């Protein structure tokens, strides 16, 4: 059995007025919240156990989705008094995730039509992998990732402060992850911890982080321009409708 944790605790400040009174994952896309598309997609793949972390306007999300029964899933919520980071969120939800092997961690503001069963199968086929992250290619981004012939990540730099002239590949972090549940033991509790900044570098050093090339559409809604682009892509049927 597997589960998916969807990260929805952020404020979405970069979207300005669009997310001032609405959590970013609840922005409409085709008349339904972005988060509803993600949940329907997961349900269609047979991934029915979902954990959602909440902080900013939590009742908007919990009130809309409830226990998830309408969508054929079971939703548990993890409430955060203050944001604890992407990895900290997983640690806080340990009791809800510990029995699932492996599990997904998805950002709530990402629209993606990846078949996550392929990611799960790839991860479990690599016995040494503690984490596998979906990668896509982009010449300029806020992360740098390099992989070897077995898709093991050999270099990971999150938000480099200067140019990296010896960069050999154009892979970047997509914010879509699969973890063996023992990753929870690597995350310190009671503090703000992010996967890219605090957890991934150690996994790379140990050779236990792998990359899975994106198959299909993916867009992170991190600006008004990106949001407009996703709406256009949806209206032009570039995104699967779930």
Written description of the protein model:
This protein has 242 residues and is α/β, with parallel strands linked by helices. It has one domain (3-235): Spore Coat Polysaccharide Biosynthesis Protein SpsA, Chain A. 27% of the residues lie in helices and 26% in strands. The chain contains seven helices and 13 strands. The strands form four sheets. A seven-stranded mixed sheet has the order 5-4-1-6-11-8-12, with helices on both faces. The longest helix is centred in the C-terminal third of the chain and has 12 residues, at 195-206. It starts with a strand and ends in a 7-residue tail after the last helix. 40% of the residues are buried. The model has no long low-confidence stretch (mean pLDDT 94).
Q: What's a concise summary of this model?
A:
The chain has 242 residues and is of the alpha/beta class.
Secondary structure layout plus pairing:
Blueprint: E1 3-7, E2 28-29, E3 32-33, H1 34-44, E4 49-54, H2 58-65, E5 74-79, H3 85-92, H4 94-97, E6 103-107, E7 110-112, H5 116-125, E8 131-137, E9 143-147, E10 153-158, E11 171-179, H6 195-206, E12 209-213, E13 218-220, H7 224-235
Parallel strand pairs: 1-4, 1-6, 4-5, 8-12
Antiparallel strand pairs: 2-3, 6-11, 7-13, 8-11, 9-10
Give me the CATH fold name: Spore Coat Polysaccharide Biosynthesis Protein SpsA, Chain A
Beta strand %:
25-35%
**Shape, please?**
globular
| CA distance, first residue to last residue | 22 Å
Task: Give the CATH level 1 class.
Answer: Alpha Beta
| Percentage of residues in helical conformation | 25-40%
Instruction: Compute the average pLDDT.
Output: 94
Number of helical elements: 7
Rg: 17 Å
For the biggest β-sheet, the strand order reads 5-4-1-6-11-8-12
């Amino acid at each position: 059995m597997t589960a998916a944790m969807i990260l929805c605790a952020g404020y979405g400040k970069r979207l300005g007025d669009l997310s001032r009174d609405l959590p970013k994952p609840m922005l409409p896309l085709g008349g339904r919240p972005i988060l509803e598309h993600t949940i329907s997609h997961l349900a269609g793949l047979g991934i029915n156990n979902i954990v959602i972390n909440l902080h900013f306007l939590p009742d908007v999300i919990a009130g809309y989705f409830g226990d998830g029964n309408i969508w054929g899933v079971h939703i548990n919520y993890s409430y955060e008094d203050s944001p604890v980071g992407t990895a900290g969120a997983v640690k806080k939800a340990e009791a809800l995730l510990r029995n699932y092997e492996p599990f997904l961690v998805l950002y709530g503001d990402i629209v993606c039509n990846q078949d996550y069963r392929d990611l799960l199968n790839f991860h479990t086929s690599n016995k040494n992998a503690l984490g596998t992250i979906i990668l896509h290619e982009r010449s300029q981004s806020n992360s740098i990732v390099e992989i070897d012939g077995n898709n093991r990540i050999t270099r990971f730099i999150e938000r480099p402060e200067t140019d990296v002239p010896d960069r050999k590949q154009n892979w970047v972090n997509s914010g879509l992850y699969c973890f063996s549940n023992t990753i929870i033991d690597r995350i310190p509790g009671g503090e703000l911890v992010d996967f890219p900044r605090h957890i991934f570098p150690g996994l790379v050093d140990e050779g236990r982080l792998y990359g899975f090339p994106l198959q299909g559409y993916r867009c992170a809604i991190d600006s008004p321009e990106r949001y407009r682009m996703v709406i256009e892509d949806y209206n032009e049927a570039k995104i699967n409708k779930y």
